[in-house]
Design goal:
With 218 residues, the chain is mainly α. The protein has eleven helices and no strands.
Length: 218
């Protein structure tokens, strides 16, 4: 059962659920403009450069490169779980983006006449498909799978911090609002948990794939 997987990392999931709850409640109680301004109260050159590069932690190319690397270093089961989590979360995100097509911060600010002075130089402004954040979904999907795989408190908390920074980078760079990031994180977390369960459960996907391909993924 999925609950057995949760028992391996109780601190990790307690912190994760707390963060998701706080974030989602904040989205419900405040406007996306208010939360955006609150989270962007401080900018400096160092953070501009740092988040300009760090945001690629949630990029699809980075995720796929990680999966390919793990496959070739004989972590094939982990690579499969990460691939399924990445594809699953990505599919849900893309469907929601197409259905809702919410404006990105730069376009939204133009629509309401809000003057925002912290756009990072060199970062291309995006205008559509803001909700939910694909980078956040990918980062949290990968985070969940890796945390459950290693079952180590230090590794799991490190993964959570890395995913949180990836999500925050999207707000810092004015590519997303808080609701975009929080729902992306929620989608990624659920996808990561489900795909980990399906791969490692005796009756899961991995068993079927492994049987069909004569143990290629062992």
């Amino acid at each position: 059962m999925i609950w057995k997987a949760l028992k391996h990392c109780p601190l990790f999931f307690a912190v994760l659920v707390s963060i998701l709850m706080i974030g989602l409640i904040s989205c419900a109680l405040t406007s996306k403009l208010t939360s955006f301004n609150f989270l962007n109260f401080y900018h400096c050159q160092f953070l501009d450069v740092f988040f300009s590069y760090y945001t690629f932690m949630g990029d699809g190319v980075m995720c796929l490169l990680t999966i390919i690397f793990l496959f070739f270093v004989k972590r094939k089961k982990l690579a499969l779980a990460l691939l399924l989590a990445f594809l699953g979360s990505g599919l849900i995100v893309q469907i929601l983006k197409k259905l809702l097509n919410e404006p990105r911060p730069s376009l939204y600010f133009d629509q309401i006449g809000f003057k925002y002075s912290y756009f990072v130089i060199g970062i291309q402004k995006m205008h559509s498909a803001s909700f939910p954040s694909g980078h956040s979904a990918s980062a949290f999907a990968m985070c969940i799978v890796i945390a459950l795989y290693f079952k180590d408190k230090r590794v799991s908390i490190l993964c959570l911090l890395l995913a949180l920074f990836a999500g925050y980078s999207r707000i810092y760079l004015a590519h997303h609002f808080l609701p975009d990031v929080m729902f992306g994180a929620l989608i990624g977390s659920v996808s990561g948990l489900l795909m980990y369960y399906f791969v490692w459960h005796p009756a899961g996907i991995y068993t079927r794939v492994n049987t069909g391909f004569n143990g290629v993924l062992k």
